[in-house]
Amino acid sequence: MADALRVAETYFDAWNRRDAAAIVASFADGGTYTDPLAPGLSGDALAAYVAGLWQAFPDLAFELDGAALVGGDTVAAQWVMTGTNTGPFHGLPPTGRSIRLPGADFIRVEDGRIRSVHGYFDAGAVPRQLGLQVVVQPEALGPFRFGSSVGVQGGRRSRPGAFGITMLHVRNAEEVERMRTYSRQIALEMLEMPGFIGWTAMALGDRLYNVSAWEDVESIGRLMIGGTHARAMADFFGPGIGAGGFTSVWVPERINAMWVRCRGCDRMRPHLGPDSRCDCGAALPEPPEYW
Question: Would the pTM count as exceeding 0.70?
Answer without folding.
Answer: no
